[in-house]
Amino acid sequence: MNSAPMQRRQWLGHGSMGLASLALQSLLQRSALGAEHLPALPDGKPHFQPRAKSVIWLFMRGGVSHMESFDPKPELNRYAGMDIGQTPYKAVLDPERRKKVRVVVVNDANGQQRNRIYPLQVGYAKGGQSGIEISDWFPHLRRSVDDLAIVRSMWTTDDNHGAQVQFHSGRHMLDGRHPSIGAWVTYGLGSLNDNLPQFINFGPRFFDLKDGHYLGPTCDAVKLTVDPANPLAFAKPELAMADEEQRKRFSLAHRLNALSALRYPEDAALQARIKSYELAFHMQRQIPEIMSLRGESAQTQRLYGLDHAITKPFGQQLMVARRLVERGVRFIQIMHGDGAAGAWDSHSGLKRNHANLAAQVDKPIAGLLADLKQRGLLQETIVVFATEFGRTPGSQGSDGRDHHPYGFSVWMAGGGIRGGVVHGATDELGFHAVEHPHYVTDIHATLLRQLGLDSHRLEYPGRKRLEIDFGEVIREIV
C-alpha cells in the first residue's frame, strides 16, 4: 500500500494483472450481466432430469489409429502387402449417409493412393466380462472395458487437422466460427461452484482459443496448466503481498465500485467487473489448493501413474480433473499430443509413435475411471475419449498411416452411459462406417442429453443452425 499515488481505475487494473479478463469469462454468464446487445441467456436449469453433472473430455490430437486401438481388424493381416484391388474387399460407401453403393476405394481422404494394405502393428485381446477386443497398447483400459461404450462408426468430413475444430464444433473450419461443445454446456447450465470457472482447458489446441464465438467470451474455456509451484501464473498480483493485504485491497475495491454502482445502477459492465474481481480472488485461493496433490495418498498417485515419468504428466492432469469435478467444475477439456497437428499424427513410424503415446495415457485414464468409480463420481461424470479421425488401412510410406475421416472410434463412460457395449461398426478393413454411422455431433447430442439439455432448445437469436449441427442422441449406449 506504499506505492506511488495513481487513479483508482489505473490502480485496479495495474494491481490485478489481468484478473478481470480471466474471471470475466466465467463471470458474465453466471451473473447474467452481459452487455445489453447480448440476448437473454438460458436460466441455467436443465430442460429435463439430468443423469450427469460434469464432463471430462479427453482429446487425442493428431488422429488415433482406430484399428490399433479400439477397433482391431485382423483382415489387415490377412491381406497385408496386397494391393487393395487384388483383394475381395468391397467397401460400402454412403456419401449422403442415406443411399448405399458398393465401390472399390483406392484413395485416402487427401486423394492420395494408399493401395497397399498395411498390417496391424500390435496385437489385441478380449477384455472384461463383455469380451470386447482392444489392442495391446491399451492393456489397462482393456481391463476397464466393462465401463466403456465404444462407438466404432464415427465419421467426419475434414480430411486434415481442421477436423479438430469440426469435432468440437460440428462445423468445418471454413464454415466460419461456431461454438464448441464445452461452450454450449457452459451456455446452457448454471454454475455448480461460483468460485471456479465452469469450463477449463488443459493442453495445446490446434484451433484458436475461443470456444464461445457468437455465444461470447463468457463461454470460452479458461486455460490452466498443472504446475503446483506456479498454479495461476497469469492471474497473480504483480507484487508479492500477504493474503490479508490482498483481501483488504479487494475489499476496498469492492466498496469503491459499490459506491459507483449506486450512482450508476444501470451500468451492467460495472456490475460484472465487481463480480469478476470477487471470482478472481476466490480463484487465487482455490486453484493452488486444487493443483497441490500432496494430500493424495500414495496409492491414489500410483493409480494415476504419478510414480513413473512416462505417465506422470498426463496422470497429474487427470487427477486435477477429478479434483475439479469434485469441486463443481462442469466441463474439463484435456488435450493430449504436442505439436501443431498433434503428436498422434503418425504418417511414419506408427508403431513407435502409438506405442509411446498410448503408454502415456492408458494407465492414467484407467486410473481416472477407477478413482471416479470408487468415489461414487463416475455415475454423475461423463468421460469421453475422442480424436479427430482415424488412420487409413493402406500404408503411407513404409511404416505409417494417413488421415482417415470415413470411419473411426470414440468411447464414453459414466454419467448414465451403458458400460461394456460396442455400437456401430466399420467394414472388415476399417475403411468406412457401415453400421449405425454417426457424425461427430451425435456425441455432442448424447452428452447434452445426459446433462439434461436439448440442443434445439438452446436457441440463440439471429443464429440459424443446420439440423446436422444438433446431432442425434446415440440412444443405444444410454
Sequence-ordered SSE layout with sheet pairings:
Elements: H1 8-16, H2 19-31, E1 54-60, H3 75-78, E2 91-93, E3 101-103, E4 124-127, E5 132-135, H4 139-143, E6 148-155, H5 163-169, H6 181-188, E7 199-202, E8 222-223, H7 243-263, H8 268-291, H9 298-303, H10 312-326, E9 331-336, H11 350-374, E10 381-387, E11 390-391, E12 403-404, E13 408-413, E14 421-423, E15 425-426, E16 433-435, E17 438-439, H12 441-450, H13 467-470
Parallel strand pairs: 1-9, 1-10, 6-14, 6-17, 7-8, 7-9
Antiparallel strand pairs: 2-3, 4-5, 6-13, 10-13, 11-12, 15-16
Q: Main attributes?
A:
478 residues; alpha/beta; Alkaline Phosphatase, subunit A; nine-stranded mixed sheet; two-stranded antiparallel sheet; 13 helices; 17 strands; 14% strand; globular
In brief, what are we looking at here?
With 478 residues, this protein is α/β, with parallel strands linked by helices. It has helices at 8-16, 19-31, 75-78, 139-143, 163-169, 181-188, 243-263, 268-291, 298-303, 312-326, 350-374, 441-450, 467-470; strands spanning 54-60, 91-93, 101-103, 124-127, 132-135, 148-155, 199-202, 222-223, 331-336, 381-387, 390-391, 403-404, 408-413, 421-423, 425-426, 433-435, 438-439. Helix 2 (19-31) packs across helix 8, helix 7 (243-263) runs antiparallel to helix 8 (268-291) and helix 10 (312-326) runs parallel beside helix 11.
Low-pLDDT sequence parts: 11-22, 31-38, 91-104
Quaternary structure annotation = single chain
CATH architecture: 3-Layer(aba) Sandwich
Under CATH, the topology can be stated as Alkaline Phosphatase, subunit A
Q: Mind telling me the CATH class?
A: Alpha Beta
Q: Please report the number of helical segments.
A: 13
Order of helices and strands: HHEHEEEEHEHHEEHHHHEHEEEEEEEEHH
The gross shape turns out to be globular
What would you report as the Rg, rounded to the nearest angstrom? Answer: 24 Å
What structural category do the secondary elements indicate?
alpha/beta
| N- and C-termini, Cα separation | 57 Å
Number of strands: 17
DSSP strand content:
5-15%
Average pLDDT value? 85
- How many separate domains make up the residues? 1
Amount of helix: 25-40%
